[in-house]
Specification:
The protein is an all-beta fold. It contains one helix and 37 strands.
Length: about 425
């Protein structure tokens, strides 16, 4: 028995506390069907079943039932400016990158300085990528890729953008100089993609297969596979020195610690609920783990693998984006507690003080929305985010918090990247730069 959505397939074990059953979503229709085989006395009628993912019943059951079905009906379709970037010479490859929250330079590499600023948007339900001119807000092109593209990931050497075709078992390369796709590379279950800090290995997060595949970062030949003791691994980030990284497991609430050199699991922390994005905090010691069902961030001591605090940010916390100077942390809140979401939900962006991790501002989406994942513009003046359940992209002004652009794209936009980005290397995802 499996659950399928946007090309992502999960086993029955993803539902906790012995509750048998599964969700089967048509990967392109967005329909949801819940079937429950009772093993714990919880009857199907007790499981929240709502139109458009209504929040109340879901929150009440969130600690008992990890996932609920949302039947998406047709009726539901209703801080200080960052310095301007400058070009710097490209560094020689090798070595370990610095902390992501405070990269050594806010400048674009010389070989990237003349690139047109573009947003590359993977549309998971359309099997396409939409390319947008950041300055003019104009859609330049839309092209087909593999099935269920999830994220667009800059390569470690910043020369290629990789589209993660999760459902199609492939990676599609994009040349950032031309914006054109190349021939897809076969790779098993690439939900997400990262790179070790020394640049020697790519780390493919195979969510359905519950493993990490370490591969050559250019040919993607598999070097090693690491099975993980959890369900639904999907996001990770590295410690400051790169010696270890933490992986979130969305469907059983675990955080797994992996030693980078030995490629072995060295610890597991049970967070509970539904962890999402993972980022190293501006202090370079703690990690920030978004939790969709808890509506906020777990603050985790990475060395001790211990939760030390929790910060409430908003409904459906998902993405974590430290500013380049570390003074702010931006948290995207999708506005829903179901993976199918709904139209025009209470999505928002919470702005945290980078030192205290207290929420100092909260930006809303006029009329409702579903900000998911993205990145900053090269000058840091805007934060571009995919509207996951609303088939659009938002550009937030990082000084005022206003939505300055709202651009229609394909169906189910997910992990967009804005390119180019300042920094020496990419550690993956939508542009985790160091």
């Amino acid at each position: 028995m499996t659950r399928i959505f946007e090309g992502r397939v999960f086993p029955t074990r993803a539902i906790p506390q012995g509750l048998g059953g599964w969700l089967r979503w048509g990967p392109l229709s967005g329909e949801a069907l819940l079937e429950v085989a009772d093993h714990t006395g919880v009857q199907p009628a007790a499981v929240a079943r709502t139109d458009c993912g209504v929040d109340g019943p879901v929150r009440g059951l969130r600690r008992t039932v990890l996932l609920v079905a949302c039947v998406v009906l047709p009726a539901c379709a209703q801080p200080a400016p960052t310095p301007t970037t400058q070009a710097v010479p490209s560094p020689a490859p090798g070595g370990t990158a610095g902390a992501p929250a405070r990269p050594p330079s806010l400048a674009l590499r010389a070989d990237l300085a003349n690139l047109l600023w573009k947003a590359y948007v993977p549309n998971s339900l359309s099997d396409t990528v939409t390319v947008v001119d950041v300055r003019s807000r104009r859609v330049l092109t839309t092209f087909r890729v593999g099935h269920a593209p999830q994220h667009v990931v800059p390569s470690y050497d910043l020369q290629t953008l990789w589209v993660n075709n999760n459902g199609g078992n492939s990676l599609t390369p994009i040349d950032p100089h031309t914006g054109r796709p190349g021939k897809a590379v076969p790779v098993d279950d690439p939900y997400n993609l990262y790179f070790t800090p020394d640049g020697r290995l790519a780390v493919v997060v195979a969510e359905r297969l519950r493993r990490l595949d370490f591969r050559d970062p250019h040919t993607f030949r598999k070097v090693h596979s690491l099975s993980l003791p959890c369900v639904g691994p999907n996001h990770l980030d590295f410690s400051e020195d790169g010696s270890f990284f933490l992986v979130s497991c969305e469907f059983d609430g675990r955080l797994v610690k992996v030693d980078t050199a030995s490629r072995r699991v060295v610890g597991v922390l049970q967070l509970g609920d539904m962890p999402q994005d993972v980022r190293l905090a501006p202090d370079r010691r703690r990690f920030l783990v978004a939790d969709m069902m808890r509506d906020g961030l777990h603050v985790v001591d990475g060395q001790a693998l211990r939760r030390v605090a929790f910060v409430s940010t908003g409904v459906g916390a998902h993405g974590v984006y430290p500013s380049r100077d570390g003074s702010r942390v931006y948290v995207t809140n999708r506005g829903w507690h179901t993976v199918t979401g709904g139209r025009r939900g209470p999505g928002s962006v919470a702005v945290l003080d980078g030192r205290t991790l207290r929420v100092v501002l909260r930006w809303s989406v006029p009329g409702g929305g579903s900000p998911d994942m993205g990145n900053f513009t090269p000058d840091g003046r805007e934060l571009w985010l995919a509207g996951r359940y609303d088939d659009e992209v938002y550009a937030f002004d990082t000084t005022t918090g206003t939505v300055v652009a709202r651009i229609p794209v394909g169906r189910g936009p997910h992990g967009l990247t804005v390119w180019p980005q300042p920094g020496r290397y990419s550690l993956g995802h939508t542009g985790n730069m160091r």
